[in-house]
Batch of 3 targets.
Target 1
Amino acid sequence: MPSTLRRFAPAKINLGLSVLGLLPGGYHALHTLMVPLDVGDELEVSPADTLSLRVQGADLPTDAGNLVYRAARAYLDAAGEGAGADIVLHKRLPLASGLGGGSSDAASTLLALAELYPAAVDLHALATALGADVPFFLHSGPALAEGIGERLTPMTLPPLHLVLINPGTAVSAADAYRWLDETQQFTPPLDVPGIGTALATGQPLPYFNALQAGVAARHPEIGAALAALSAAGLHSPLMSGSGSTCFALAHTRAQAQETAAELQNSHPDSWIRAAGML
């Protein structure tokens, strides 16, 4: 058994997010193209007699109030494992930012424990019970997510280079969906082939985020972030997920890196990164 496993927990963006309507139980029917990025959190997972969690880089719960702890507990129970794990979460992504950080951390925890304590456990079922975005992070590469996000179809996309900007605002996903429910402005499916073609040709992407209008109406800093990305010469600016991180695409990796550095200088209080598809 390895002494310590180190796992990268990637962020994601949504290359478009359509909310088709409401489902029973308060869930939403989604149609979204999710892409893992080469920026994210990190975890260290070691075998131990009991389960413990430490968090570095953010003030987060270290008990069942943390999705990582719940994921670990769920796996150990499902595996019938009497031992535990010592988990250290190095939090590098902003909180409640639409980048899927908590979901990715949970999925990475499941994968790490499955390696530490192999057992006939249905990871996808555990992931779905933990949250709609968690199953996506069990797999590598882009995927079209449908249903509540648990129905995944792997996709092949051209490389992409982008800049992320988070203005420091935490947005609750529950709030973002509630604001959409209040307007009932549900949206049609995404033009996934059109998105792929635009990525391949460097053209503006024909996408939208159904949650963006409601979030931006209550958080003007979202609109300011989108405007800053456009003014910097990037294209197809969009809010990711339920916000508050926004992104836009560059034509090259060098352009993304140079633009991110320039934006960080002009917006020192924002979290800004150049990123690519993992």
Target 2
Amino acid sequence: MVRIATFNVNGVNGRLPVLLKWLTATNYDIVCLQELKTSDEKFPAEAIREAGYGAIWHGQKSYNGVAILIRGTDPVERRRGLPGDPDDTHSRYIEAEVDGLIVGCLYLPNGNPAPGPKFDYKLRWFDRLISYGRDLLKAGGPTVLCGDYNVVPTPIDAVAPRRWLGDAVYFPESRQAFAEMLDDGWIDAVRRIHPEKGVYTYWNFSFGGGYDRSSGLRMDHLLVSPSSAPRLCGAGVDVELRSWEKPSDHAPAWIEVVLKRSARPTLDTD
């Protein structure tokens, strides 16, 4: 069984104690991180390695940034950045192969304020993801595309849906783009395991500490290829992280998939 998690860490260096505590407590096999908010040279690779994970990352100073962590070994990078726009300088996509499993880690643009140029960029980026996702599906191998999609797909994915009607994460165009990926064959793994349950991965910070539970949204998703869907055996969210000291505004979402794992070299931590 392979355990895969995705976590918008909201600043990997500022939240490093939270990240390391969580990695040590959970021992996920594959971890995708978003919103690193750091340049490549300042990514905390050694601290993560000491926690038992090899990593690849695609950083950007102060904004964006994605990384893939593999427990016990180094990821094999396949791609960084989506095809379709050579002028796009945002660090929002990185891809690795792990024991035959393709893992894409993404941080989709938020799109606010919407409508406007930022929302237009979000939709263009989403179109590129949809197109590239079709190529991955045609290849036929086991694949997972996980990360912060900045999309709340359906009303059940928000504690108070009407509260978000003017937000880009809930705009019809955003939801339609996500639905198009599902129509192409991608499986929303968390929703497959919890078809009617209110599951949330994001909450606004509240004044005076803590978080506003009424603002809960599910916009961190793990989409799996059809060949992997029958092997899904668990999914959830590590909600408890939101009560830790200096947490992210997101909590990690995770899935469990039954896959064959080949022997791999051990991570060198010397």
Target 3
Amino acid sequence: MAAVSAVDRLRRVAGTRVRRLRDSGLPVLQCALAAGLAYLVARDLFGHPVPFFAPIACVLVLGVGVTNRLRRSVELAVGVSLGVAVGDLIVALIGPGWWQISVVVGLALLAALLFDVGALLLNQAAVSAVLVATLQPPGTTAAFSRWIDTLVGAAIGLAMAATLPSHPLTRARRGLTELLEELEAVLAGTADALDAGDGDAAAAVLERARATQKRVDTLVDAVDAGFEITAIAPLRRRHRGELARLRTAIRPVDLALRNARVLARRGHASVLDGEEPDPDLVLVMRRLAEAVAVLREELTTGESTDGARSDLLDTAALVPEQGGGYSAEVVLAQLRSMLVDLLGATGMDRDDAVAAVARMRPGAPEG
């Protein structure tokens, strides 16, 4: 079992690396072409013989742009430009040297702080100022040419990000797909482990469930990045409605995954304690995994979520009254909570979802 688990982890890691290479193909090409263009413009248009700050600024802006976050790209552009400007000004006045570096870094950081920015801009401003102060040849003056080169590179980088953005839905849909696939696997895996009384299998599912939070954070970042792309690319603005639907689904899916972690932990405990869960409990877990698969398909293709909502309500009607043991009772409670969460992911109001699941409970009054 341990060997199988190791193979599964290796496959997941390999799949992640392949997807990363595939997703980064266009951004890497953008970055490479933009860096060369920035150098060409600064050298031939502005007449700077060695404009190395132009491609550096461009790479810094678009290097973060691989994650498609406009805010961070702009922060880097401002940071490097500010640092080079302060460095050029101070070195032109007092020359290069060890104490001049201290002065340049201090002033660059103070100037950046005036803009009330994050650590990314602050760090970049300081690094850029250090480069200027240390690369200034003794007895020569660059007279702000490096600052102009930096502006050229940053501008070309931001223009490239705006005119050739990635599709705003691609990473968001893929992130949600991966999350819901993990939720399916946890539900189905816990059901299989309970059915077989397999403690090793239950432990492997629990480990998998605990690794899902990072995927939630990645999905949030992808959706936010998608909105930023639609803000700077007019041709992508039609996708804002779909992004809004995905954003609405993130919170309930996150809650469902949190409940799934508790479910997996108590499922593992149930097996170790030798409990005999109600067979309907295992059945409901499998049916819920199937409903999650339908939800995944509908959410990530832009379809109506009516099919998933119907499946979830049908599953709620099958939830048994008792679990069949202390840990199994906790599993049962988590299943009810997950049904509410996932109904919320279909767009149902939470209060309506709670009421709908409550009506399905055995012994609940009709109407």
